[in-house]
Structures are given as C-alpha cells and as structure tokens.
Amino acid sequence: MAGGASADRSETAGSGPESRTTLETYAELVRLPNLFTAPPDVILGAALAAVAGHEPPPVPVAGLAASSVLLYAGGTTLNDAFDAPIDARERPERPIPSSRVSRRAAFALGVALLLVAVVLAGVVAGGPGSLAAGLVALVIVAYDGLLKGTAAGFLAMGATRGLNVVLGTTAAGGVLLQSPTRVLAVPAVVTGYIAAVTFMAARETEGGNRGAVEVAAAGAVAAVVAVGWSLVTAGPSRLETVVALAFVAAFCWCVGQPLRAAYAAPVPSTVGPAVGACILGLVLLDAAFATAAGVRWGLAAGVFLVPAVGLSRAFDVT
Q1: Looking at 58-62, 178-182, 274-278, which range is the least confident one?
Q2: Gene3D superfamilies from the entry (predicted)?
Q3: N or C: which terminal CB in the chain sees fewer CB atoms within 10 Å?
C-alpha cells in the first residue's frame, strides 16, 4: 500500500514537467515565435482595404488574424512532416526526427489546423474569407509537398504571405479588385520579399553561398523602396510619414546586421540568424506599409514584434 501511494505521488509529480515538455515540443514544431508574424499580414490587408475606402470592422480583422495564425502553424507542421527524412540527417534535434512527435501525428495536426483556419475565415468574413484562406492553405500544401527547393517553390512560399495580406482585405468584403494599383502592389511586394528570404533559407545548411544572401538583401532593399513609393503615392500626413519611416529604419536595423554577418561569412551559424531576422522583420515591413492608412494600423501590426522577438529567445525561428 505504501509503495503504491509513493508511486502515485511520483506519477502525479512528474505529470507537470512532462506536460510542459509536450507543450514545448509542439511550440517548437509550429515555430511559436513565427506565429506572431502572421497577424500583421492580415492587419496590413485590412489597412489596404481602409485605404481603398472600405473600413473593415474589428471583429472580422481579429478573426482573420487568428485564422492566419492557424494557417502558419499548419504550414510549419506539415513542413516538418514532409521534411522528416531530410531533417533526420541535417536537423536531428527537431521534434519529428528526435521521436518527440510522430510523423503521422504531425500530418494529422497540420491538416486539421489548415481546415480549422479555412472554416474560421469563412465564419468571420464569409465567402471571400474562406476563399482567400483556402488559397493560402492550397499553396502551403503545394509548397510543403511538391515545390520546395524549386524556383516555383520560392515563389509559392512568398505567395503564402502575399495571399495572407489578401486574406486581411476580406475583412471588408471582396474589395480587392476595386482597389487602386498601388494597393494591389503591396501583396506582390510581400510575396517577392519572402520569396527572396526563402531562397536564402533553402541554402542555410550548405555554407559558402554568398549569392543566396545577396538575393535576400536585394529583396529587403526592394521592399524598402516599395514602402517609399507607397508613401509618396498615398500622401499620408506628416505624423503617418514619420511613423512609417521609423518602422522602415527599424526594419533596416533588424535585417541589416544579420545579413551583413551572413554575407561576410556565409555559414549555417550566420545564415540561420539572418533568415530568422528577415522573417521577424516582416512585421516591421507590414507596419510601415499599414501606417499609410493611419498610425493606429501601423501600431496594431508592429506590436506583434514584441512577443515574436521575446519568444525567439526560447524557440528557433527557422
């Protein structure tokens, strides 16, 4: 009797740390810091709708932001499920090759997250929302399962982020096609930037590939130029201009140093942090674009950098 009671207490005492370990494993699987880079895309899309004269209600924006988080989590989970054989050689510490999560469970979780995301988008934004979320989910699956490592794959990964911005516009209904060209161009800029970063990330483990770093740097420069062009054409107030330029400066500082380090010594230990910085930097880029619709839009997007950076100290971004 005494021995049984002791065993029961031991099992109870061990359940807490084990639960925490399980949560940490799944946080690692879904790239927890990166999840906070998804809502700024949606907020940017909502801001673009506002610029086009269609002010979106806050509830659909929040719901679509949550949908974007689920889409991102589903994408990273499926990414690791598809990449399990490669990760077993190159990244054995990841959840699946280290046997902390089964490959089958990862596939099931990834698909479930994508389906819930599409349903949620439909609930809060109707047909346009479910259509946009569905497109994001399809491109995610195409990238993870078929296109990764190809030229089409880099564009597909970029498109998931560009379409995520489009998803945000559905908070105000299907207004994207009624928008001016400068508004339509913003998702394309986001697509190009992330495609360039993905090109660098795909060569993270190779070493000595300075050209890949140059591509990512060129994407960052082009994005900064696009923000300037957006500000000139949008004609924001002086305050909006100052805030947008502050976000641009923060973006340049955030990605500039890691990219310089990766260019100087293109090895996994420098390229990996550069990839992570560029992913987190997208929050600042989204905020800079969104500020053209009003400072509140920029701040709403930019605030997500705080949890993203904080959590990146505990979990890998790439």
Answers
A1: 178-182
A2: UbiA prenyltransferase
A3: N
Strand, helix or coil for residue 203: coil
Task: State how far the Cα of 274 lies from the Cα of 272, in Å rounded to an integer.
Answer: 5
> Cα–Cα distance between 195 and 139 in angstroms, integer?
13
- Residue 97 φ/ψ, nearest 5 degrees: -65, -25
Phi, psi of 294 (to 5 degrees): 145, 145
Q: For the segment 133-159, what is each residue's pLDDT rounded down to a tens digit?
A: 999 999 999 999 999 888 899 999 999
Q: Which amino acid is at 273?
A: P
Residue 312 is encoded by which pair of tokens?
């990146």
Q: Is the pLDDT of residue 12 over 70?
A: no
Domain ranges, ordered by start, for the chain: 31-178, 180-302
Whole-number Å distance between alpha carbons of 97 and 186: 38
User: What pTM, to 2 d.p., does this model score?
Assistant: 0.90
Distance of CA 258 to the CA centre of its chain: 18
**Percentage helix, strand, coil, to 5, in the chain?**
85, 0, 15
Written out in words, the top-level CATH class of the domain with range 31-178 is mainly alpha
For residues 199 and 249, is the Cβ–Cβ distance under 8 A?
A: no
Q: Return d(Cα 250, Cα 94) in angstroms, integer.
A: 31
Letter string b/e over residues 113-141, b meaning 16 or more CB atoms within 10 A of that residue's CB: bbebbbebbbebbeebbbbbbbbbbebbb
What size, in residues, is the chain? 318
Longest dimension (CA), the chain: 79
pLDDT digits (tens, 9 = 90+) for 29-48: 999 999 999 999 999 999 99
Please state, in angstroms and rounded to a whole number, the distance separating the CA atoms of residues 298 and 312.
Answer: 22
